[in-house]
Specification:
The structure holds 2 protein chains of 2 kinds.
Chain A lengths: L2 H17 L8 H17 L3 H19 L2 H27 L3 H25 L1 H10 L4 H30 L7 H33 L11
Helix pairs in contact in A: 1-4, 1-7, 2-5, 2-6, 3-5, 4-5, 6-7, 7-8
Chain B lengths: L2 E10 L5 E11 L2 E6 L6 H8 L7 E6 L2 E2 H7 L4 E4 L3 H4 L5 H11 L4 H15 L14 H13 L5 E5 L7 H16 L3 E5 L3 H7 L2 E6 L2 E6 L5 H4 L8 H12 L3
Helix pairs in contact in B: 4-5, 4-6, 5-6
Classes of the chains: A mainly alpha, B alpha/beta.
Chain lengths: ~220, ~250
């Protein structure tokens, strides 16, 4: 399988898993607090040792939440991207002999990323949004988060379908330039389709928004 | 008795070429009107206009003489539309939320919304799908969810765009059951369809849309010759039946 196709499939599957219902049932308020407190701790911690100490419990929480080997594998792949980017960004610090700062920077990326994935797997994207609504976070923001969870896997899935259809009609092994062209035309096609989808979606929302001024629908 | 009337409907997407050129139809309460015609003739566009989602350049849609647009300003729940492609219609994170969307916009208490959702889901046999995200369902299941998301608020006018597409025997049976039940409750059903079985099995009136214009007849007066003017595919068993009947001088 082509690496780009594989990457897109991994992203689509991971997003699907993350947007599924939670494996563990917790009340929205507790879920919101479970999100906010560790995020606050992670945000204010400015110490490599503390971040390194936090990593094992966070990882354990993540493994407990992930349960299935396939989920672990998928999310590890996803995690690899921010980690690699963080390591690449920290590389100049290492060259300058400031290893401590490089480690701090990398851990600052890894800890929240692992925690966020663990939390999303435990609470479920939908419950996170419910919890945020309980905490009176503005509705346009929370509804936007729900829409994101719904459309991201669909977006990736559609891109994958278009790309596969193009790849099926490319009879030789594509070169890097051809891959770039395939990706570019697929993305263009997706943008054109999204215009139609957006129009139909606005009709669908209008048709089922029954309050006279469209209240309560989070439009 | 309620009657939906569309008169002299003209519509263009581009501003130049008109897709509807004086289309008209009448649908009394307690009847099913089938809208048939070749692909791309404007059936879906006409349904979107009847749902008040597109505004025709010319023409008028009324319910018992009152302008539909004015009625919809006050009460949107009078019309429900099920789109041809369920993917265009579903946008909530779970099937439950999808069905609950419309009642929630009315500000009903969540307990009441829940009751409505469960009743509708049970009616369509999709209770087991309630916690699933709609995009993970099969097209047939999506079609039933899209139907449920509209049936939940029991609109007076139900518009169905190709209701039999994507459905298996079970799903089709459910849709046919709903159409018949709906008809009995004195509501208006208009369906755009290519399925001749559905047209002949359920429609009281048949309107053929061709070249932007409609020709309507009651089902009893709709002859096979008249129907074949359109691109409605006639199943081979039906053709055989017609030939056999003709051979016997029927």
């Amino acid at each position: 399988m082509d690496p780009i196709t594989r990457l897109l499939e991994d992203i689509r599957d991971s997003l699907r898993i993350l947007s599924l219902e939670p494996a563990i049932n917790i009340p929205p308020r507790a879920a919101a607090l479970l999100l906010i407190i560790p995020v606050f701790i992670l945000a204010v911690t400015n110490n490599t040792q503390t971040l390194a100490l936090l990593l094992p419990p966070i990882t354990a929480t993540y493994l407990y939440a992930a349960r299935r080997l396939r989920v672990v594998k998928l999310s590890l792949k996803l995690l690899a991207y921010p980690v690699l980017l963080a390591a690449a960004s920290a590389a100049p610090l290492i060259l300058m002999g400031r290893q401590g700062e490089a480690a701090l920077f990398t851990l600052r990326v890894i800890d929240p990323a692992v925690y966020m994935m663990a939390f999303t797997l435990i609470a479920g994207w939908r419950r996170i949004v419910q919890g945020l609504e309980e905490l009176h976070i503005p509705k346009p923001l929370t509804r936007g988060m729900l829409m994101l969870a719904y459309y991201l896997p669909r977006f990736t899935g559609q891109l994958l379908a278009i790309l596969t259809a193009r790849r099926a009609r490319t009879l030789t092994k594509p070169t890097h330039t051809e891959w770039w062209r395939l990706l570019a035309t697929s993305t263009g096609e997706l943008l054109l389709r999204s215009q139609h989808t957006a129009l139909m979606l606005s009709h669908a929302i209008e048709a089922r928004t029954l309050s006279p001024r469209g209240e309560g629908a989070g439009r | 008795m309620k009657k939906l009337k569309a008169e002299d409907i003209w519509f263009t997407y581009t501003g130049e070429e008109y897709i509807l050129k004086g289309a008209a139809l009448e649908a009394p309460a307690g009847t099913v009107t089938a809208l048939a015609g070749p692909t791309g003739c404007g059936k879906s566009t006409l349904l979107l206009i009847l749902a008040g989602l597109l505004k025709p350049q010319r023409g008028r849609i009324t319910i018992n003489g009152a302008d539909l647009a004015d009625i919809l300003e006050e009460d949107r729940s009078i019309v429900g539309i099920v789109f041809q492609n369920p993917d265009d219609q579903l946008f909530n994170p779970t099937v439950y939320d999808e069905i609950a969307y419309a009642p929630r916009t009315l500000g009903l208490p969540e307990q009441e919304v829940r009751k409505m959702v469960l009743e509708t889901a049970e009616r369509l046999g999709i209770t087991h799908l309630l916690d699933k995200p709609p995009y993970r369902l099969s097209m047939g299941q999506k079609r039933l969810v899209a139907l449920a998301s509209v049936l939940v608020y029991q609109p007076e006018i139900l518009l169905l765009d190709e209701p039999s597409t994507f459905l298996d025997k079970y799903g089709l049976g459910k849709v046919e059951e709903i159409i018949e039940e709906y008809k009995k409750t004195n509501k208006i059903i208009i369906m755009a369809t290519h399925n001749l079985d559905m047209v002949l099995g359920h429609a009281d009136n048949i309107c053929i849309l061709q070249d932007g214009k409609t020709t309507c007849r009651p089902r009893e007066k709709a002859t096979i010759e008249w129907i074949t003017q359109t691109s409605l595919p006639i199943p081979s068993y039906m053709l055989k039946l017609i030939k056999t009947c003709s051979g016997r001088g029927a």
